Amino acid sequence: MISVQILRGIAAMMVIVYHITQKLYVNGDIKWSFELGAAGVDIFFIISGFIIYYSSVHEFSANEFMKKRIFRIYPLYWVITLVTLVISYIRPGMINQHVEVPISMWNSFTLFPVPGTSPLLIVAWTLSFEMFFYVIYYMAIKLKVNRILFSSVAIAVLVVIGQIFKIPFISDPITLEFIYGMIIAYLVTSKNTKAIMVIAAACLILSATPVVWHSEIRSLYYGIPALALFCVFLLLEKKVRQEGGIIKLAQVIGDSSYSIYLTHLYSLGIVFILIKSRVSVPVLVVVSFIVSVIIGILCYKLLEKRIIKSLRPLARKAPLKDIAKT
């Protein structure tokens, strides 16, 4: 779906903006505005929940599902992580200057969460949650039960148990955002546009209330506005299909979103080293943003697509285009 790809690209760009703010140590009202870019991650999680259900409605093999997800996540991630490892020795602090906890190599290469540590590539914390969701969804397929119901209940129960017993990782309510996406995917496959419109309106209203903005739960204060935005984009699907030019560019960015996400810290590090002391802050922000997007697109075109193509015989027999967008 074009609207989903465009929103995926927007989410990647939001994360870039957020990390530019971190590197600049921006303060005041502008910092609050830029930090909204962190919600790009929440959009990613909702999109992930949506795509996993939407693309696997007729997929009955649990092993096929998991193999496909592993091939989609790990190969490019491992390449970028190895590059990060080399750079961390050559130029410490270029990428992970804000990390205040020990680096776990186990976490870095397996994405298995290790409490009190960080992966070498700090943005990989989100991939640990992605794999957590995939494992639960894999179990739903394996057990041949209702996938949305099983996955939703499992995630919710684990969050509650984690909160009660103070268990790191599984206690994080951010995983509820995968449920948001699955529910919307179900409504789309059921062609229930009215329900999506109601959810969009309700989320927009809630987003303007203290219930959301004063909440300390991320799946509320970022998740609900992100869900509203996601629903709005889905409702505009037919409209964006009729557009050209800028929409095609947005699609390219959306296709490249995973590469952009994994490489943008390198891009920012390089730009800041080369021109930070020579240009004004606005110029630095614009150049950093543009370079991050361009490098991410190049990574997708020159590396990610080739990796996907080379692994395609090992995964499910599906068109390269479909694998790249799931």
From TrEMBL:
One of its GO terms (cellular component) is membrane. The chain crosses the membrane at residues 7-26, 32-54, 74-91, 111-136, 148-165, 171-188, 195-213, 219-236, 257-275, 281-303. It holds the Pfam family Acyl_transf_3. GO terms for biological process: polysaccharide biosynthetic process. GO terms for molecular function: acyltransferase activity, transferring groups other than amino-acyl groups. Keywords: Membrane, Transmembrane, Transmembrane helix. Residues 3-300 form the Acyltransferase domain. This is Acyltransferase 3 domain-containing protein. It comes from Rouxiella badensis.
